[in-house]
């Protein structure tokens, strides 16, 4: 890796410019402010061709550093390679796709035709790579072995990927976040820590943070805070997608598991546990949610644009109705009590508020499927502009706000929506959505295509966002479950609240996939392999099992 720091000249010299140059007040001074509140400083200066935006020619020879070697990070690398821009990919794990490998046992909702990036396919084509069956639903492990690993071995990428290298900070060479004068003339700096404990600084022309959010789980307590005693209960807690039927079977077989959360990760685990309960006597399952309804997760059944996801909601509903899963609604966790912190000696007590007062559930294991949040500590010394609610870039935040959007209602967006006050720094992929669970993998691929085009100076390509995501949600607000929300129709209620998706037969969804998108949350998954037929005849603008077309607001 390039550890060198280029000579950027006398760093005490402060460039001068006339007041009001480039559409800002006091260009390249401490008074720098955009004259148009709707336009950022960077946009104002770039649009006017302000000279103080351009770095030195030496900076242009520095690499673009990509953080993370998952699907979005390697897609960014593929576009950088095609554009002929120098780049380095830094991956904390021991291999590319390390985070995905942790949930490699689960199956994506979206078939292969929607799970790969166009530039990556172009790099793979000359290597003899055979594209997987476009209609097959890959597991996470297949996504890694059949796509990411071959991509990482292509001549264009192989020598640029460094695994076992964790990024611990991003900054500007020689200045902290408070310094404005001459800031954009300096290269970005990426500090890394390798598995041997060595710390290195890498200078970069630009940084694309595609590190995702895996490993930064939301707490189980209320108000965004850990519950009292949650830290001492850590031995009882699992990640959001344990391998219930494989690697982690012993931890759950014949025991009582509490699953907390109302997303597709929770649904996947619940169905795997239900399957385990049929094989291992004594296996018990409790599902606790804060809401008084799980309609959003049950979703649209066979009206789902991705059949596997619709089948997931239908199967989960049937398992609850059959008594295989004990559903506890309106349960807000307030505390954990673990006598000695050892799951081998007894269960943990989980206390929560309910409309009827406090209630305590005991469990041998607690699956924390409460979603993720971004790691922002590493970005303390770069100027990021984040929405206070979602922790996403401020221009992107209104488009992805889970209060008003489900996955497919997020409009197309590109480099201008992802830019920060820190020139050359971008957050992309799942991390760009902050705490919002509305991310689509295909959207991440389009993000990096646009960002790389901008870095290459191709403004027209960067601004031509090529992804068309139609409006989604369940295809009718009446398509709810037996947990009827106010205003649900009697006809829907008579059908068990799932419209045409009710069936006692094995879940086989037959609909047309009419959008080119992946699943929510960076690759949501189906629990157990079941046949899914992708046929014809679905209504136009079919919905998703992610819930109502307008996000959380649909619950009101």
Automatic annotation (TrEMBL):
Gene3D superfamilies assigned: FAD/NAD(P)-binding domain
Keyword Oxidoreductase found: yes
Record bears the keyword Iron-sulfur: no
InterPro entries linked: Auxin_biosynth/cation_transpt (IPR050982), FAD/NAD-bd_sf (IPR036188)
SUPFAM superfamilies xref list: FAD/NAD(P)-binding domain (SSF51905)
Keywords: Oxidoreductase
PANTHER family named among the record's database cross-references: FLAVIN-BINDING MONOOXYGENASE-LIKE PROTEIN (AFU_ORTHOLOGUE AFUA_4G09220), FLAVIN-CONTAINING MONOOXYGENASE
Protein name: FAD-dependent oxidoreductase
